[in-house]
Task: inverse folding
């Protein structure tokens, strides 16, 4: 009877995860034995590799994934012969093994998404068989546990005696009749995300309860003031009442009755006041106890849910030894990757987004940082370069450092590269101090390499590292010493669920700024603000920092209050930083630090300038969480001096000012849109990027764009639909639009022109000059 479809789907999901674990195990162990090259010492490791291939084969056959099972069987045979020393582990064998494992990974991708894997299995099978069936270098007996040959042996002759060899079960097999216990359960990440969001709402409710408790305390304080005031006035009032009771004369009876009623009323009110105050104190005491308990439970629940989402960074770091090995061989360099702190845990959402930055840093270290063996030997270094990747927890931050012992960063080459790429003039580059020059390596479009290769020369690299890390609310720092090496340090939040924020007031509004990006808080007198090149500046640690009012950057209406007597004011200034850049921002007042639950903006407000999200304080006030990257970048633009009249050359087009044309770039490929963004920014344009047509359409609603550059094949809304919608909208019907795509058929070109595109570029024939020429023509 066939299995139910939903059960089979769950079974395949379990299989793909288990199979990927087996593949990672095999790769990790192959890297170990490839490095050691000691058959005697690596015997147990080869046995583990063989066992992992055997387990992969069994799991694939159990879910009817025959191609993966057959490929695993071929690898099992090969690894078994190496384990039994029938085949020598040569570089060719390792290369072929990695290729086969890559093919297995592609086949797993096919299982998940249904897209046919571009794999030639028959070629792999033939090459593995050729290696596995090589004659043994020394005659020896067959080893136990080695699978049979890939080619069926000839049928035994009738004269041969029939034998029944004993069957030896692998150690990993579970004995028949044994009870299987599993203390783990697989839970969909979406369920954990939902649970964490609900805990966040519970945390917000707890903060609201704390606020209500504070309000109750204020009411009780008012009553206590009232009670104290009554005690002070009681004796005088009661004495007056008693005098009325002892008055004589005709009105005595009436006065006595009234005084008696007043006296009784005051005594009743005093009793009510005492009971009310006492009751409120009891309620407050019980609420405080309940709030303390709820705080403990909610914090514990949040921490437990957060821990369920925590994974060791090894899940990402384990992918890099193989990558480093392949890149080093391709570049004819000898490289050792040392990984420390792989057991450090971080939230899954952070872990998923740090792979690309770390990949770029490793590629940069191998290509730019480490010298060739002969160069290292001439410099008195070991021929084998070392890249050390260390992960550690520092407070509530994950710190990952990537350090190499290579040539270091040549700041003269950095300055020269900045001038060559038109990022600044030679005089401006010469005026930079070493720290400012070092920060240039994070600029879009920057590269010190004069030739283009698979790894270098495109200006896409460290700016991607900075952009990805800053998107997570982190920072990147770099230190380098010529001849000794370079170290990049990534500081990232352990979780994105909650954020520790500094609350500030500006123009009667409250804003939240992530503490991770606050370099320091400064209290300064207004007469200590200096003027540097016509701009306000604050001297911090002996260095002038550009100073802006937060309201000016955010475009808030109103003016800052000034004292009527003209006396110096005490200013509240926060120094914000991203990468190596620091700027000062003046605010009206500081309200303290608070951990908040940040919520992303809903559609269509997916990307609003200066806004990272919103949060709700315990008072119920909705507060905007500011995007520090946007603040600093706009602050830098506002600080940059205007070009001198008559300035010419490409350098004058760099650091685009607000009046520079704004171009929206839409492409679902991160690399492609980053490359296009770098080209356009280097030419002096402002650029906003979108990951698909829908996001680009949303950007067009909020930004005054001057031109649209779009891919065609994108999720949610493709380029044809985007351009069509632009042409149908009265606001954008005259907006120039350029399509850049890999679709080169005549029908696609005609469809693009019919949709309203002003230019159509094919990616295979794309070049920077033709794109910029078309943009200049359309603008």
Result:
């Amino acid at each position: 009877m066939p299995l139910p479809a939903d059960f089979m789907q769950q079974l395949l999901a379990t299989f793909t995860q288990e199979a990927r674990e087996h593949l990672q195990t095999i790769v990790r162990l192959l890297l170990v034995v490839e490095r050691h090259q000691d058959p005697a010492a690596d015997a147990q490791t080869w046995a583990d590799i063989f066992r992992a291939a055997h387990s992969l084969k069994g799991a694939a056959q159990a879910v009817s994934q025959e191609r993966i099972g057959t490929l695993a069987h071929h690898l099992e045979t090969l690894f078994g012969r190496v384990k039994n020393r029938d085949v020598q582990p040569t570089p060719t064998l390792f290369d072929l093994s990695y290729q086969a494992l890559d093919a297995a990974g592609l086949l797993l991708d096919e299982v998940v998404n249904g897209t046919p894997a571009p794999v030639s299995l028959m070629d792999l099978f033939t090459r593995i068989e050729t290696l596995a069936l090589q004659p043994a270098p020394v005659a020896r007996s067959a080893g136990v546990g080695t699978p049979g040959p890939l080619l069926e042996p000839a049928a035994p002759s009738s004269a041969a005696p029939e034998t029944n060899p004993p069957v030896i079960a692998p150690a990993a097999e579970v004995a028949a009749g044994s009870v299987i216990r599993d203390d783990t359960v697989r839970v969909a990440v979406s369920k954990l995300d939902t649970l964490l969001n609900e805990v966040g709402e519970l945390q917000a409710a707890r903060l609201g309860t704390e606020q209500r408790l504070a309000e109750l305390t204020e009411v009780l304080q008012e009553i206590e003031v009232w009670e104290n005031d009554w005690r002070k006035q009681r004796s005088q009032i009661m004495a007056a009442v008693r005098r009325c009771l002892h008055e004589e004369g005709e009105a005595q009876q009436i006065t006595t009755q009234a005084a008696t009623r007043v006296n009784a009323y005051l005594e009743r009110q005093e009793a009510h006041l005492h009971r009310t105050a006492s009751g409120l104190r009891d309620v407050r005491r019980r609420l405080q106890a309940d709030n303390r308990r709820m705080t403990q439970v909610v914090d514990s629940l949040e921490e437990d849910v957060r821990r369920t989402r925590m994974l060791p960074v090894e899940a990402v770091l384990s992918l890099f030894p193989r990558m480093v090995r392949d890149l080093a061989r391709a570049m004819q360099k000898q490289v050792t990757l040392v990984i420390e702190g792989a057991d450090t845990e971080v939230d899954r959402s952070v872990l998923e987004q740090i792979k690309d930055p770390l990949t770029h840093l490793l590629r940069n270290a191998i290509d730019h940082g480490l010298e060739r063996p002969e160069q290292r030997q001439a410099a008195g270094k070991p021929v084998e370069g070392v890249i050390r990747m260390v992960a550690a927890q520092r407070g509530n931050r994950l710190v990952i450092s990537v350090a190499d012992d290579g040539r270091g960063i040549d700041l003269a080459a950095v300055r020269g590269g900045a001038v060559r790429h038109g990022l600044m003039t030679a005089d401006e580059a010469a005026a930079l101090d070493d720290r400012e020059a070092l920060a240039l390596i994070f600029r879009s479009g920057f590269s010190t390499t004069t030739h283009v290769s698979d790894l270098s020369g495109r200006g896409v690299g460290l700016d991607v590292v900075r952009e990805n890390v800053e998107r997570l609310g982190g920072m990147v720092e770099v230190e380098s010493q010529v001849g000794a090496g370079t170290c990049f340090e990534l500081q990232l939040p352990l979780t994105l669920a909650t954020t520790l924020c500094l609350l500030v007031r500006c123009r009667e509004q409250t804003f939240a700024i992530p503490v991770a990006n606050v370099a320091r808080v400064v209290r300064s007198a207004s007469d200590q603000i200096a003027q540097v090149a016509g701009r306000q500046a604050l001297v911090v640690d002996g260095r002038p920092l550009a100073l802006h009012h937060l309201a000016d950057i955010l475009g808030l209406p109103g003016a800052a209050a000034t004292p009527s007597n003209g006396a110096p004011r005490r200013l509240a200034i926060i120094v914000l930083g991203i990468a190596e850049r620091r700027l000062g921002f003046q605010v009206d007042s500081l309200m303290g630090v608070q951990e908040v639950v940040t919520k992303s903006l809903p559609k269509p407000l997916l990307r609003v300038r200066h806004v990272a999200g919103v949060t709700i304080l315990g008072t119920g006030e909705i507060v905007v969480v500011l995007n520090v990257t946007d603040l600093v970048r706009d602050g830098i633009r506002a600080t940059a001096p205007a070009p001198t009249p008559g300035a010419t050359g490409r350098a004058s087009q760099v650091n685009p000012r607000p009046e520079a044309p704004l171009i929206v770039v839409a492409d679902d490929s991160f690399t492609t849109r980053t490359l296009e963004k770098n080209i356009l920014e280097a030419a002096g344009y402002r650029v906003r990027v979108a990951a698909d047509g829908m996001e680009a359409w949303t950007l067009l609603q909020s930004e005054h764009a001057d031109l649209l550059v779009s891919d065609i094949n994108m999720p949610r809304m493709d380029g044809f639909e985007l351009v069509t919608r632009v042409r149908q909208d009265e606001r954008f019907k005259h907006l120039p639009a350029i399509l850049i795509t890999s679709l080169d058929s005549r029908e696609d070109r005609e469809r693009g022109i019919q949709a309203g595109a002003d230019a159509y570029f094919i990616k295979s024939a794309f070049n920077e000059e033709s794109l910029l020429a078309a943009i200049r023509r359309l603008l």
